[in-house]
Amino acid sequence: MSRSLRLSLPPLPAVLLSIASVQCGAAIAKGLFPMLGAAGTASLRIGISALVLAVVVRPRLARLTPAQWRAVVPYGLALGLMNFLFYCALARIPLGLAVTLEFIGPLSLALVGARRWFDFVWVVLAAAGIALIAPWNGQGLDLLGLFFAVAAGACWAVYIVLGQRTATVLPGQRAVAVGMLFAALPVLPFGVAGGSFHALTPHLLLLGSLLALFSSVLPFSLEMQALRTMPTRTFSILMSLEPVAAALSGWLLLHERLTLPQWLAVGCIVLASAGATLTTSRPEPALGAE
After folding, report:
1. Can you tell me the distance from the alpha carbon of 229 to that of 225, in angstroms, rounded to the nearest whole number?
2. Domain ranges of the chain
3. Among 246, 221, 223, which residue's Cα sits nearest to residue 234?
4. 193: Cα separation from own chain's centroid
5. Are 174 and 62 in contact (CB under 8 A)?
6. Tell me: the pLDDT tens digits for 167-218?
7. Do 107 and 212 contact (CB within 8 A), yes or no?
8. 174, 240, 238, 171 alpha-carbon torsion, rounded to 10°
9. CA–CA distance from 190 to each of 37, 88, 142, 223 (Å)?
10. How far apart are CA 60 and CA 64, in angstroms?
């Protein structure tokens, strides 16, 4: 029988601690990039996370039906590609901006089919945020890093859709545990090709374990606990705070400084995300997104 990941915290502190945990994990990841690169860091995180979840959840692969395999395999591939692209962005642009741009994916998904006039307020706010981030003079921010962040957001939107489909045929914890096994497939070849695993040391393995703990295992456990008692709309609004948390984490832990227009961009997209949650039938956020 599969075992659950359990922590005992009220739902609001659990979600806030989850958000803080994810951003601490991103800061650890950024510190590993010089030694392992984005692909090597993503492979290490996903590999250790998959191992931990497999031990704790103990999914019985032999008992999965063909329908469950058809759902969980693309779900896992989308998870891996999303994390890889996000780390590629994080290697080139500040943490706060990477998370802000990535949020455009689920926000766009939430606004698909919007018909009421005030729904388009959120579109305008999101567009203003993008415009404030864009380096119109061709200088400053890394254009490839911006592209990677937006691509990660697109994968996040796909991941949410596939996650909803997978949740109908496979319970949440088993879906993530099995999906994480396939998440390594789109990432591992780049990590191997980059030769980053030759640089692994006990110290780097320890940091990789902390990365998996803060970025996957701990937030996954906390979010699952919170969702048992917290309304999903409240959960979604709280998750909209992630770009602000990322910007603050980048400032405190990585000494990254955002300009005033970039802070305004973060604020615009946070307001757009929270507003879309309140006024549209927003798809449920999938766990383990970053």
Report:
1. 8
2. 11-279
3. 223
4. 24
5. no
6. 788 876 788 888 888 888 888 888 777 766 777 788 888 999 999 999 888 8
7. no
8. -10
9. 10, 11, 21, 30
10. 7
